[in-house]
Structure formats: structure tokens, C-alpha cells
Amino acid sequence: MHRMDRFLNFIRYIGDEYLGNIFKITEFTMILLYYITFMVFFAQNMIPTELYTIIGQIQGFLALYAAYRFRFFGFAIVVSFEVVQAAFIVSRLIYEPNLSLVAGVVSKILTIISMIIVALLSNKQELQKRDLRRLAITDDLTDVYNQRYFNASIFNELEKSKKKRKSLGLILIDVDNFKKYNDIYGHEMGDEVLKSTASLIKVAAGSENLVFRYGGDEFAVLLPNSDQFNTTRVADNIRREFESQRHFCYTDGIGSQISLSMGISQYPDLATNRDELMNQADMALYHSKNLGKNKIHFYQDVISRIRKGISKDHQHLIGVFKTLLSTISAKDTYTLGHSERVSTYAVMLGEALNLGLNEISILQYAGLLHDIGKIEIPKTVLNKSSSLTCEEFELVKMHPVYSANILESLADIDQLVDFVKHHHEKYNGTGYPSGLYGSHISLGARILCIADSFDAMISERPYCSAMSADEALEELERCAGQHFDPELVEIFSSIMKAKV
């Protein structure tokens, strides 16, 4: 059985290496048929001696063509025919010497020598082409595939998965605290971390999966025909291998904080297209980094999460939530991801306050829907990279009111509209839209204000660079008592610092 496996592997290698498509297979078959037919006629003495020169020229051309097109494989097959023919000619030459047969033998020898030269040159040319192709799709530093090839590969793999009705897993990986490490120890040591990490991921991911450098300190792994269980298993394997072999990092100071955060999604169970697959894995990675780092987070469909915890009285709202969230997604994918994260932070804070299940559910809904009113704001204003004009800012300030108006039909959920409408109120009364202050702002709105502000600060937006989680927490603490409820800020900071 072992020999059979090796034989089958050899056949597959020949097919992949030399006969890569139907046209090459057809070419090689035609050459082979010609030689077999000629050998049969030659063995039966059915070819007149005066035709040897013409036939020899045809065979010489085909021999060189085979050596060029099929390299060493073509040479090995055709040269066997040439040697057999040369032996036949020599045997005839012994019994009936003539100049034509001598010329035939010399022609065969020259053909074989020429085939060797052509096969060597053709093989060298093929290796050079492969080197150029490899350089075009490989990251110079880490020697894994580059981002450009990732963009082509994810499209191709999705098309294959759709046609074959197979699954496709995606893992996005971020090196935690890499920027700090790079700043402290220098770019040379930072590059060593990236190279070693890439090599480790490549081995741990397995040869059947594709590894890419997706950004500065981000990597991506595409897993063809991989279900959720297998994708998570590969991610776990990558993290375990990194933890056990991270000797390439300095073990003191910031070096001890180098780890991997991962976000995972999968087609078709969670995502239906490329954009969804990318956005979901990206959101899952966001959760991994902001909820403690050195974690693996599988994207969870927000509707599925709500369906698990929603009370019987609210079951009829599932369809409404799906419609509203799809509307947000169509308008702005950042807003959807931001809303999901705000919902998570709000629930975390609600649980720390020991709120009831019903109150926590309302916080979850409010976090998801707090920015639904932005569908009324033009994209040119939402994504503007420069400062807003006074008129544009006044328009943006209306989005909590727009959100509340949209959600008025859900007024049977106590406090939902209130939480959403007042999540931009400030503790000192300088917020909007109503200028409420202190305890006059509902607890849910105060919670949303902190969750919303924290996620906004750590997010990369067109008009503002992202802060680190530590910097965002410092900003919350600095503004406690002014913009934010100081007691809630203290609780939220302790939760996040424990995770980070």
C-alpha cells in the first residue's frame, strides 16, 4: 500500500509539473502516438530506406519540441524511443552497411545531445519564471504570500467553494504590542519577530492552508474546505506553537507581552460573500484585541446571540432587528461593527453592575441600534476626513433623535428609546440633544455613552487616528465627572484593565 501511495504521488507530481492542462496532455499524446506508430512500422520493415532522412528530420523536430515543452519528462520518454530506433538502425547497419543508415545513427546521436541541451535550457527558463512569479506574490520580509496575492486568493477560493459547495475559513492574526516592541528594541528586532512569527504560522497552519502577510503586523490564513471546528483547531494550534516557541522575542519588559490575537469567520455558515467574510473576521479580531488580547474570537452573528438570550415577550423583534442591522450595514460597515462592539461593552458593564436580565437585554438592543439614525446622514458627512462645518455638525448631532424616531415603534420595550436618544448626553449637562446632566440621564444612556466613546476612540476613522486601549481608558478617566459618570468609568476601567 505504501508503494502504491508513492506511485500515485509520483503520477500526481508528473501531472502537476509537466502536464498541467488539457492542451499539454493533448500535445504529449499526439507526440507519443506518432512515435509508437513509427516504431511499429519500423519494426515490421514497412518504411523504405529512402524515407529515413525525411522521417529523421520530422522526428528530430518532434524530439526537440518535446524536450522544450515537457522538459526532462519529455526528454526521458522520447529519448527511450530514439535509443531503441538507434539500436535498430545499428543492427541493420551490421548486415547491410550503407551511408544512409550511418547518417541515421549520427542523426539520432545529435538529436539526443540536442534534446539534453534544450531540456536543460527549458527547465532553467521555467525555474526563472517560477522565481519571478514567486517574487510577485511573496512578501519580501516574511517569505509568506503578500497582501496583493491575498486579495486574488480569497476571491478565487470563494469561487471554488461556491462551485464545489465547500466551506472556507479565514483567520486574521495581529501581533499584540508589536508597535511598542518595535519602538523599544528597534526595527531590526521587530523584523525578526515578524519573520519568525510568519514562519511559525506557516508550519502550524499546515501545508493545505495559505498564509499571507496582510499588513504591517497582521497575518491572514485562508483554509479551503475547513469547517468552524477545524478552523478554530488551526487557530488554537497557531497560538500554542507561538507560546511554546516565542524565544525569538525578548522575554523581559514589553517583550513578555508579545502575543497573538485572532479573529475568525467562515463561509458559508456565517458569511455569504468576500466583504462579509473579511468584515466579520476583522470584527472578531477587534473583539480579541479589545477584550484581553492573546485570544481567539470566532465571529458570532449578532442575531444568533440575541435569539439565544431574548425573552419570549421580545421574540417578535428578531425580524425587526435583522432589517435594521442590514440597513446599517448597507449604509456603513464601520457603523455596524462599532454598534456590535458597543453592545458588547454595554452588556459587560451591565453585568458588572448586577443588573437584571431584562435590563441587560435592553442594553444589548440599545447598543446595537444606538446609531441607526445615521442612515439619515449623508455618507459624505459620515466619512468626511476634514473638520465638519457648523451645519454638518448640527446635522450629525441629530442622529440620536433620528434613532429614537425610528425605534418609537418598539416602545413596548421599556427604556430602549430613552437609552438610544440620550447616549450623547454628558454628565455635566453639555451634551445633546436635551442637555441632561448627572442622574437625570438614565443609567442605560450613561452606560452607552461610555461604551460608545471608548470604542470610537480605539477605532480608526477617516477624521481621527485610533488610540490604544490604555490611552482610551486614560481619556475616560480624565473626563470622568465632566462627560462621563465617574463611578461607571471606574468600574469600566477596572473591567477592561483586567482583560487587557
UniProtKB/TrEMBL annotation:
Keyword Transmembrane applies = yes
Which UniProt keywords are listed? Hydrolase, Membrane, Transmembrane, Transmembrane helix
Where are the membrane-spanning stretches? Answer: 21-43, 49-68, 75-95, 101-121
Q: Name one Pfam family in it.
A: HD_5
Residue ranges of domain HD-GYP in the record? 313-500
Q: Which GO terms describe its molecular function?
A: hydrolase activity
- SUPFAM superfamilies the record matches: HD-domain/PDEase-like (SSF109604), Nucleotide cyclase (SSF55073)
Coiled-coil regions listed in the entry = none
Q: Which residues form the GGDEF domain?
A: 166-301
NCBIfam families tied to this protein: GGDEF
Its recorded name reads Diguanylate cyclase and metal dependent phosphohydrolase
Q: Which organism is it from?
A: Pseudobacteroides cellulosolvens ATCC 35603 = DSM 2933
